[in-house]
Amino acid sequence: MMHLEYEALARGLRQLPPPPTDEGSVVLVVARPDVDERVTPQRCPLTPQGGVEGDRWGRRPNPDPAAQITVIRADVARLFANGQPLSLFGDNLVVDLDLSPANLPTGTRLRVGTALCEVTPKPHTGCGKFSARFGQAARDITADPAFQDWRLRGLYIRVLEPGEAGPGDPIRVLSRPAGER
């Protein structure tokens, strides 16, 4: 069965080990040149002008900097994907790091590979494509109050200073807004 049922997802999420909070790693970089197209480079420039090089975000007429780069937690993505490729999500960065709002509040600065990035306030939520690819139960659990503090659908970051990132590179929390965590 390609899509897991709600209870299997909930059980699987509760069994995941705690992710790293201050330093993790990039598992996968994904550029989306066109709708439903995915490229997974081994090294990729991240820039304030274009986000992930080759991604269609930078070609939009008025790209929203608050929605520049999408990030999802790797272990959560693996559970939802249930054997499907992680690039199917369409998130630009698949990472091993705690993405919860408690750990990464808006304004948190991160070093992703060699790029300086910042967590934006824009919420990242599942859409119809998400439920078509991973099942309605996956979309439902991302909205479940029991898991809201996990930020299961991930978050958005924007690039402040250009650099490069690729699988295996560190992703480090450099600073959180004053009074957070």
N-C termini distance: 40 Å
The major beta sheet can be summarized as:
7 strands, mixed, barrel
Give the low-confidence spans: none
- State the CATH class: Mainly Beta
What does this structure look like?
With 181 residues, the chain is an alpha+beta fold. The chain has a single domain, classed as M1 Pyruvate Kinase, Domain 3 (Beta Barrel). Helix content is 18%, strand content 26%. It is built from four helices and ten strands, in the order H-E-E-E-E-H-E-E-E-H-H-E-E-E. It has helices spanning 6-15, 74-81, 128-134, 136-143; strands at 23-29, 44-47, 51-52, 69-73, 93-96, 109-112, 115-119, 155-161, 163-165, 170-175. Strands 1-5-4-8-7-6-10 form a seven-stranded mixed barrel. Strands 3-2-9 form a three-stranded antiparallel sheet, with no helix packed on it. A hairpin with a 2-residue loop joins strand 6 (109-112) and strand 7. It starts with 5 loop residues before the first helix and ends in a 6-residue tail after the last strand. The relative contact order is 0.25.
Task: Record the SSE blueprint.
Elements: H1 6-15, E1 23-29, E2 44-47, E3 51-52, E4 69-73, H2 74-81, E5 93-96, E6 109-112, E7 115-119, H3 128-134, H4 136-143, E8 155-161, E9 163-165, E10 170-175
Parallel strand pairs: 4-5
Antiparallel strand pairs: 1-5, 1-10, 2-3, 2-9, 4-8, 6-7, 6-10, 7-8
Helix pairs in contact: 3-4
Key terms:
181 residues, alpha+beta, M1 Pyruvate Kinase, Domain 3, 7-stranded mixed β-barrel, 3-stranded antiparallel β-sheet, 4 helices, globular
Question: Summarize this, please?
Answer:
By secondary structure, this protein is an alpha+beta fold.
